[in-house]
Amino acid sequence: MSRVERVTQMLKEEVSSIIHDDLKDPRLGFVTVTRVELTKNLRYAKVYYSIFGSNNEQKNTKKALDHSLGFIRREIAQRMTLRFVPEIIFRLDKSVEYSIQIQEALDKIKELTNEPGKSDKVRNKK
Length: 126
Known about the structure:
The chain is α+β, with helices and mostly antiparallel strands.
C-alpha cells in the first residue's frame, strides 16, 4: 500500500470521527464519509459524504461542514503526523441515492413481470 493510500484511509477515518464525535453543529444531519480523494502531493483532499434527508437538510449539512473546515483541519493536524495538513473540500456523494433509485426501478420491473397478465406484455416487448 502506497503512502497516498495509507494517508487517504487515515484521513477518511479521522474526518469521519471528527464529524461524528466532535462537531456539535445542530445543522449536521446523519453524515457518512464515503470516500476521500487525495492528491499525490498530499496537499488537497476531496471528502465525499452522503446524507439521507431533504434538499434543505443536505444544504444545511454542507454549510455546517464548510463552516467547520478550520476546526477539522486543526484536529487532523493534532491527530496525524503530516508535514502539511491537506486543504479539504467537501463534496456530496450522490451515488447512494442513485443506487437506491436503481434498486427501486428494478423492484418495479420485477413487480410488473410477476403480475398475472402483464408478464406476457413485458416479455413480448423484449
